[in-house]
Recover the amino acids of this structure.
């Protein structure tokens, strides 16, 4: 039993030190990575970055949310930036088993 506890403790330490943790911007709470500043500049004009970071959607869901904001809340056309924003959101705020789904999406039919 004691040996098993030592093995589990060692595995826990190994997992803790080998897990890659994404660096988070202290001002916004968003993951610092390629295009995060673009996301901050486009998404936090109308709402806090927390609204982004507390949601999880696949690419299609994020895209539908952007279209919904354009239709209902006068979000401007993002042009070529839309693809870059979607790349970032899909990478860092996608639906995963670990993250789960916080609540149903606001946009219908995702």
């Amino acid at each position: 039993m004691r040996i098993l506890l030592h093995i589990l403790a060692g595995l826990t330490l190994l997992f803790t030190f080998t897990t890659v943790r994404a660096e988070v911007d202290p001002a916004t709470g968003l993951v610092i990575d390629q295009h995060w500043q673009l996301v901050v500049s486009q998404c936090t004009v109308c709402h806090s970055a927390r609204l982004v970071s507390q949601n999880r959607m696949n690419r299609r869901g994020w895209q539908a949310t952007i279209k919904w904001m354009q239709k209902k809340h006068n979000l401007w056309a993002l042009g070529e930036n839309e693809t870059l924003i979607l790349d970032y959101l899909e990478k860092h705020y996608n639906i995963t088993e670990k993250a789960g789904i916080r609540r149903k999406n606001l946009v219908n039919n995702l």
